[in-house]
Design goal:
Blueprint (H helix, E strand, L loop, with lengths): L5 H19 L5 E2 L8 H9 L3 E2 L4 E2 L11 H10 L7 E2 L5 H16 L13
Helix pairs in contact: 1-2, 3-4
């Protein structure tokens, strides 16, 4: 986002907001900057649109569709990086994530963690 104009940011964010609302009836209130790239300007713009920016505490190269069929790797990467307050970024285009998500959720719960809605953390 830092490389596009203020108007382009507003158009893209609000276009996504409208599409999500029309399709799912959900009013988005959080935003994750694509690729984690942001600037004070982009944060100010998304904040002015009513969004809270949320970064992640862990991500791995699951977005790369050429690096799939590594389910054991995915499990290890995810489970080795769980910690209190963790926000784990998993990309929806990853077949590995789809295949290991149920297992990882159960294992994380077995580790004594629970999942919470981001609204519970906003102050």
């Amino acid at each position: 986002m830092p490389d596009i104009t203020d108007e382009q940011i507003k158009k893209e964010v609000m276009g996504l907001h409208t599409a999500v609302y029309e399709k799912f009836g959900y009013e988005m209130q959080f935003i994750r900057p694509p690729k984690g790239e942001f600037s004070e300007r982009t944060l100010d713009i998304t904040n002015s649109l009513g969004y809270t920016t949320v970064m992640w505490s862990f991500a791995y190269d699951d977005w790369n569709e050429e690096k799939q069929n590594r389910e054991e790797y995915a499990k290890k990467k995810i489970l080795d990086n769980v910690h209190p307050g963790a926000i784990i970024l998993l990309h929806g285009n990853s077949k590995d994530n789809t295949n290991v998500l149920d297992y990882c959720i159960k294992e994380i719960k077995n580790m004594g963690y629970e999942f919470r809605n981001l609204n519970e953390f906003v102050k």
